[in-house]
Structure formats: C-alpha cells, structure tokens
Amino acid sequence: MRRKRKETRVPVLDAGTQPLIEMTGNRQITVEGSTGILLYESDNIKVNTTGPVMSFFGRGLSLRCITGSSVEISGFVNRIDFIT
C-alpha cells in the first residue's frame, strides 16, 4: 500500500495592488508600486501609489532613484502619513 505524500506549499505574500514599503532604519525608504511624485521638498515628499498617497516627513529628504514603478527616498525620516 502506497502512502500519499504531503504537499508542502511555500507561503506567498500577495499584496495585490497595494504598495510595498522597504525601510532601512529611518534613513532610506523604497516604495514599490509608485505611480508618481506629488510633492518634492527637503522636508516633505508625497508619493502617489496604487493604494494610498504616502507622505514622508523629515530632514534632508531627497529622491535617490525613480523608476516606472518604484521610488527610493533617502534622508532623515521621522514620520510617514498614509492619505486615503
């Protein structure tokens, strides 16, 4: 008699259309799922995403890299707001 093997499934994180935020401390942030920059100042950067608008507050903020679907922000981030 043969025993059935148990299927092992790898868990997959499916965020769907929501943006993915990766933070390295409070000095660097990558937002995947960006659709554009709404505001760019040294103390506030607003990023439009496939979900809510994200507003990053801090000091010396700058955009290090912008691609078609992601944004990389560097500087000293002390607050993040999600605007729905």
Question: Strands, helices and their partners?
Answer:
Blueprint: E1 20-24, E2 28-32, E3 34-40, E4 44-49, E5 53-66, E6 70-83
Antiparallel strand pairs: 1-2, 2-6, 3-4, 4-5, 5-6
Task: Describe the protein's architecture and organization.
The chain is mostly beta strands and 84 residues long. The protein has one domain: Immunoglobulin-like (Sandwich), CATH 2.60.40.2000. It has no helices and 6 strands. It has strands at residues 20-24, 28-32, 34-40, 44-49, 53-66, 70-83. Strands 1-2-6-5-4-3 form a 6-stranded antiparallel beta sheet, with no helix packed on it. A hairpin with a 3-residue loop joins strand 4 and strand 5 (53-66). It is elongated and about 65 Å long. The model has no long low-confidence stretch (mean pLDDT 88).
Question: Any key phrases for this structure?
Answer:
84 residues; mainly beta; Immunoglobulin-like; six-stranded antiparallel beta sheet; 0% helix; elongated
